[in-house]
Specification:
Helices cover 31% and strands 21% of the residues. The protein has 469 residues and is of the alpha/beta class. It has a single domain (1-469), classed as Metal-dependent hydrolases (TIM Barrel, Alpha-Beta Barrel). The strands form 3 sheets. Strands 1, 2, 3, 4, 5, 16, 17 and 18 form an 8-stranded mixed sheet that branches. An 8-stranded parallel sheet has the order 6-7-8-9-10-13-14-15. A two-stranded parallel ribbon has the order 11-12. Helix 1 (2-24) runs parallel beside helix 3 and helix 5 (193-206) packs across helix 7 (242-255).
């Protein structure tokens, strides 16, 4: 009886959220019919191996022309892209926007603004909200709120099980029809193998990817950071890499006879890379992602009880960083994702073991990816851009809809990146609500100059760029 009452209350709450969002949609959305001319940039479209200096003309929400010969268009707003890389709009497939239920940390509006500030035209939000995004009405709510905000596009990864409890399946098919582009119980892995198998079968039938948070909770009880010398020094319970690797190995084996599109989120260990590499060599539809903090920081960053470096999965060893970087470079890891996870200052000020896991990443991603992958000589910008456009678009089923590519007649989602800009990370300047950034004070190269979403320009050189919505 109690469970039925809880689900009924949940449904009523979801319906009210949907009604509230629908009622607040107004005619504030700026028209996208203004012509935009991106002049003199290095146009890169990894989906077709295009890399050349060219002008790009955008009108009516579409890319009208890409030309090595200078384009003239009377009345067009001109964006000077000299020294910049012009590419498909960047996509982050793993962000936490906290709404509904966590609006004191982030909202769909502020998260979408943070995405634009970081150079992203699209993000995919996770379902670990309050309540969890496990009903079609909640998927509708997020999508309507994102349209109301008018900044980056927000796609929804909905929960695979009710309440993300890992027990009863959520209405996966209905949520797919409502617009959910993928499914995950992110923040928790599904421990029950029978439930996991049913989730994979149902996601396969719905034509959606399953994105797994690989964590065997039995091995991480009370754990705060990587099992190693720093954890021992601080007197903290260690989190072994095998907790990630065991669930990933199980899932790969379960999925062999199913063939669901399976994606391992925020990989942290070299052992996980080996599992992904082997599965891909067998022809399985498996992929993985790497986040900036796992590509740059070791568990040394936690020394002194630094809660800004407390993340899930935890920061690990130099050899894990090396394995992850090389996997991104050789294509074993096809996707870069920030796992943007805002928390308040008071939450992060708690004792290390009590502070929440997670760090923000949207507004520091470009220079930090460059620091980890380009400045080390492992990759060049076009390949990094591929992991931030083509890879995420294919994962979320968006590539066939025109996302992740830049071509004549195509979708006018474009990122303009000053790849020569020297950046010192300063979280106090971020558009997002939270400041829990482990990269504060670090330096890197690469800053978004402008972002275009469906033909709508956000000129980030303007101090008040966020007022255009």
């Amino acid at each position: 009886m109690g469970g039925s009452h809880t689900r009924a209350a949940h449904f009523i709450f979801a319906a009210k959220l949907f009604q509230r969002a629908a009622a607040t949609i107004t005619a504030q959305m700026q028209s996208n019919d203004t012509a935009l001319l991106i002049r003199g940039g290095r146009v890169v479209d990894p989906s077709r191996n295009f890399d050349a200096r060219a002008d790009v003309l955008i009108q009516n929400g579409r890319v009208e022309k890409i030309s090595a010969t200078p384009i003239t268009h009377s009345g067009a707003t001109v964006i000077d892209a000299d020294g910049c890389l012009v590419c498909p709009g960047l996509i982050d497939p793993h962000v936490h926007l906290r709404e509904p239920g966590g609006e004191h940390k982030e909202t769909i509006l502020t998260g979408a603004q943070a995405a634009i500030a970081g150079g992203f035209s699209s993000v995919c939000c996770m379902p670990n909200t309050t309540p969890a995004l496990d009903l079609p009405s909640l998927v509708d709510f997020v999508r309507l709120k994102a349209k109301e905000a008018g900044f980056a596009r927000v796609f929804v990864a909905a929960a695979g099980t009710l309440g993300r409890a890992g027990e009863s399946l959520s209405p996966i098919g209905a949520m797919a029809l409502a617009g959910a582009v993928a499914f995950t119980d992110d923040g928790d892995g599904i421990a029950n193998s029978a439930v996991m198998r049913r989730v994979l079968l149902t996601c396969k039938a719905a034509g959606r990817a399953w994105m797994q948070h690989c964590q065997d909770a039995a091995l991480t009880s009370d754990a705060s950071m990587n099992a190693g010398a720093i954890a021992a020094k601080l007197g903290l319970t260690g989190w072994p890499a095998v907790a990630e690797e065991l669930m990933l190995e199980r899932d790969v084996r379960l999925n062999r006879s199913i063939g669901c599109r399976y994606h391992a989120q925020h990989l942290s260990s070299g052992g996980s890379v080996d599992i992904i590499r082997r599965a891909k060599s067998e022809g399985q539809p498996v992929s993985g992602e790497a986040s900036p903090h796992h590509l740059l920081l070791t568990d040394d960053a936690c020394d002194g009880w630094n809660t800004m470096a407390k993340v899930n999965p935890p920061l690990r060893r130099p050899e894990d960083i090396d394995a992850l970087r090389r996997a991104v470079a050789d294509g074993t890891i096809e996707v870069l994702a920030t796992d943007h996870a805002p928390h308040t200052a008071s939450e992060k000020a708690k004792d290390f073991s009590a502070a929440p896991f997670g760090c923000i990443g949207l507004e520091s991603a470009l220079p930090m990816y460059a620091k980890a992958l380009i400045e080390t000589g492992l990759m060049k910008w076009p390949d990094v851009i591929e992991r931030m456009t083509v890879g995420p678009a294919k994962l979320l089923g968006l590539f066939e809809r025109g996302y992740g590519r830049l071509h004549e007649g195509g979708l006018a989602d474009v990122s303009v990146i000053d790849i020569g800009a020297k950046v010192t990370i300063d979280a106090t300047t971020f558009r997002g609500m939270s400041r829990n950034c482990p990269f504060n004070g670090m330096q890197g190269t690469g800053r978004a100059r402008a972002v275009i979403v469906n033909g709508k320009l956000f000129d980030l050189t303007r101090a008040n760029w966020f007022e255009v919505a």
